[in-house]
Design brief:
The complex is a heterodimer of chains A (113) and B (113). Chain A is mainly β and 113 residues long. Chain A contains no helices and 12 strands. In chain A, strands 2, 5, 6, 10, 11 and 12 form a 6-stranded mixed beta sheet that branches. A 4-stranded antiparallel beta sheet of chain A has the order 3-9-8-7, with no helix packed on it. In chain B, strand 5 and strand 6 form a beta hairpin. The radius of gyration of chain B is 13 Å and the shape is globular. Classes of the chains: A mainly beta (113), B mainly beta (113).
């Protein structure tokens, strides 16, 4: 069955520190991959996406993610975290033609001043 | 374009009452999706429309749930005889025919007392 795993439920980092959020997926073929961010009580904002091509993708707000087929991973990174990055982050996958997303359970990021 | 909008943003109801939520997608988007997000979880797919046709429904969408998109523009999600387990955030998303990326609205948070 298709699934997405975000192993870290909570992560705390200091402002200015680097960040890596993990995402592993289980899928029959190469999926389309997404990272979304959700602030409290809000909807989801797209950070970045991977469909094909260069495995390192750049997104908004200084985020990037790397697709590693051999590890079935799509980890999100940011070199220097800002206090405003505190939110919940969701990894999602879909396959061409299926239209629906499968989301992970999310990682809640806390940023210390 | 202001993006996907959802109304109401919050709804409190008593068990057994019916509720209806509305979603207005981005104007040129033919595809519309509903997801449900419970506390501490990622969004789960409920249903999907291509124009006015409802093409897929999740097993999560019980008989008490019905979704419509009568003119291929806005959509409504109705829950009949609400139960406390229906308390969740209901998210709507839309996408264009030519892309896989879904754009999410701010959600409607339902609390069933």
């Amino acid at each position: 069955a298709q699934s997405v795993t975000q192993p870290d439920i909570h992560i705390t980092v200091s402002e200015g520190a680097s960040l890596e959020l993990r995402c592993n997926y289980s899928y029959g073929a190469t999926p389309y991959l997404f990272w979304y961010v959700q602030s409290p009580g809000q909807g989801l904002q797209l950070l970045l996406k991977y469909f094909s091509g260069d495995t390192l993708v750049q997104g908004i707000k200084g985020f990037e993610a790397e697709f590693k087929r051999s590890q079935s991973s799509f980890n999100l990174r940011k070199p220097s975290v800002h206090w405003s990055d505190a939110a919940e982050y969701f990894c999602a996958v879909s396959a061409s033609g299926t239209y629906k997303y499968i989301f992970g359970t999310g990682t809640r990021l806390k940023v210390l001043a | 374009d202001t993006g996907v909008s959802q109304n109401p943003r919050h709804k409190i109801t008593k068990r057994g009452q019916n509720v209806t939520f509305r979603c207005d997608p981005i104007s040129e988007h033919n595809r519309l999706y509903w997801y449900r997000q419970t506390l501490g979880q990622g969004p789960e797919f409920l249903t999907y429309f291509q124009n006015e046709a409802q093409l897929e429904k999740s097993r999560l969408l019980s008989d008490r749930f019905s979704a419509e998109r009568p003119k291929g523009s806005f959509s409504t999600l109705e829950i009949q005889r609400t139960e406390q387990g229906d308390s969740a955030m209901y998210l709507c998303a839309s996408s264009a025919d030519w892309e896989e990326t879904q754009y999410f609205g701010p959600g409607t948070r339902l609390l069933v007392l």
